[in-house]
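Field reference: sequence -> structure
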Amino acid sequence: MSAPTRKRRWLTICAITASAALVAIPAGAASGQSGSPFGARALAQVAKEREQSVGALSPKVAGKDGGDGNEADEIAEGADQYAEARTSPGVVAPGAYGAAWTGMTRLPGTGSSWRHVTDLPYNSDDPRYRDYDSNSSGGAGNVTGRMAAMAADDDGYVYAGSAGGGVWRSRAGGGNWRPISDRLPAQSTGALALDGAGRLWLGTGEATTNADAYLGSGVYVLSDPHHGTFSSRSRVGGDELESTTIHQLRFGGGKVWAATGEGVWSHSTKTLKGAWKLEFAPNPDYLPGGSKADDESASYKNIANDIAIDPKDPSKVVLAIGWRSGDDYNGFYTKGSDGTWTRITSGLGDLPADPDNVGSVTFARSADGSRYYAIDQSPEQLNTNPDSGLEGIYVSKSGSPTGPWTQIADYKGLAADGSALTSSGYMPGVQAWYNQFLTVDPKNPQHVYAGLEEVHETKDGGSTWSAVGPYWNFGFPCWSIDPAKQTGDCNQTTHPDQHGAAIGSYHGKSFVYVGNDGGVYKRPVDGAQDASGHATDWTSLNDGTIDTLQYYSVGIGKDLTYGGVSVTGGLQDNGQSVLRSNDTVMGSNFGGDGGDTLTDPANGCNIAEEYVYLAIQVTQNCAVNDGSWVTDPSKITSYNVAPADNATGEARFIAPLAADLKDSATWIAGGRHVWVQTHGYAIRSGAEWKSVYDLGAGRTATAVAASGGKVYAAWCGPCNNQGFARGISVGNADGTGWHDIALPVDGTVPNRYLSGFAVDPKNADHVSLAVNGFSRHWTEGPGAGVGHVFESKDGGTTWKDISANLPDVPTDSAVFTPNGGLAVATDLGVVYRAPGRTAWQRVGNLPAVAVLQLKLSPDGSTLYAATHGRGIYKIKLRDCG
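Structure field:
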């Protein structure tokens, strides 16, 4: 993919950073620092990146790897890359994850139990870690993983649906959370909704088009949400909604309506049996089983965002349909007198009807039925406006979803309401296709909360707005990096990137609950504001009892200060967590997105953390800092050491990084090139990396590993299902002996994404390979083959399938245990093959959560698992058999 389409994903997960108005770091002020900061990167830089991407965005979906500028928006690119690993070389049929989960539950167990490591509050404002690359003092406070949907009632019960860690319940108006969906085969939430009978409905499959959204297994209902838990028996209908995403669930006319990635469906609310009915799909040929189902754009051709039902006449329904980057089918649809769905072309008032200006849409209705509200994201704005993709916020004062609609906010007005996003190139709604919620105060139809990157509130129907939950506190006069304070003299705000909201009551008092990329926050519905319109009464509900942290990686090293070990890991939009052996609260020492990580086994404060596209930062003191670098840049103790593929964009969103098993000072990084550096944690500049092998134009590394100077690198290119290709290259860290392995054409190693290596520490020629995706039973693509774990004893020249009884489940990484066993991380937990055995066992009883990386403790006695939705777990290897 060409460099212009691979700019950093500033817009994707919106890592919180300091404003350009705060500090000016002189060039070369700290050895290894570049003018493109990471944690404390300036909004001006963000805006510049955004502006460069405008014009490269295509309003139509085209080839993802053609280098012609299509899909330059990095969040879509990140989503593609995450999906590629699980779908290429084709498309996956519905039911794959359900079958895999059934197979996993039937595996014999090891009889062991995992211990939860990250079941502590995670303080993003920890005053210990205020180094240059940290976001501490931004004001988000305690955080956890992304929340996609919220629901609440008037009895103090709150329900939070996470992106990858299931649904959680609080009985105390927030806090003291318990998981209630662990028995389901999918832990990704798309929608939560309470119906009129008090039942809780769950739509699985997160519908935000971001880098790590998982498909779902359908819709489930919980009749007694105060006490019960979801089970597979509570699924509504059949498998019609498996392997898709669900954006909203709405009720009306005795039906539940589902807006999904495969059109709009409906089902009776009176009985859970019987199939879902496909109400409308604008391009049915692209649905599974259709004549164009294997087209590269199929997943973008039937996106439904929301459903609005007329409270006065439930037979009148308006559908919001459309792909956020634009397509001919985008628009609002209603059913005509002949029973067919037709696009509304006029009569909506200010609300656009043309496809170019209808993208991602969210509706909300007042409790008394007097008003409808809507947020509309515009493909045209996304493609042409460097400041925002928001078309506007609208109200229908007739209470009918057919309008007429009146615009009550645009991005310029929201920027002037106390927003932190006032810089050109990064203003409210810049991610309106990713960040949206709307909720109306049930007691006041003019009191509305709207979520974009920030939380906005109006009490007068939209005449005036306040940014009650600003993106951060950086740049405001009240802000200070003073370690004695959370965020200077500012009040706590919420984490950025809003996805869900609900209003409920606890002990007779009403609260609004918001879910975002940092978890769950609440404040009184009629809360207080300061002179700038910022709320003074936000409370983080991420108290450590809810752990939905989305780790890409984990690192473990000896804690030389306190004894024991220090555990760290890279996270989606929550930087890098660090847990010292004596901690009761985790801290955040790097900001933004945390990708892969390296930790010195001999010293847990020697850490290398990857942002995205191989933007690597390194510290040798855990990034402990009191913030004095703001006035004295020489006190910065974290350094940007990215290899050159970061600058050219020739690395994957989450790119592979590894240390040699025999020499922790030798690191391997993979982009288009295989990079090696031998200075360990003393590296201070990206120029210290050496390219030892060029994988070739259009190819990019998916996994790297090394032992004793022997290096393995897996690659793909193209990486999507249009001509997907993969391979393995092997050579030495000194640059000699490099060659591409001729993988056999007989399918011994499937033509699927190669996701991880495990090298035998006793013999560098003995290596195991983890293969992602699903077998040809589920994947309609050339060479999908069978098998997920392969073994070579001759340095990769020949391979043997050792999958044996392993279910057909995507595998993500592997590690040899000291006794010669092999542990493998999958999208549905961890499996283990004991030495001398051929069969696999399931390790413990993790929920159906993806485990993306496994690492051993420094003494080799403990296995650590980085899950993408339920934090980090560990288990003693002696318990694995």
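Note: The longest helix spans residues 74-87.
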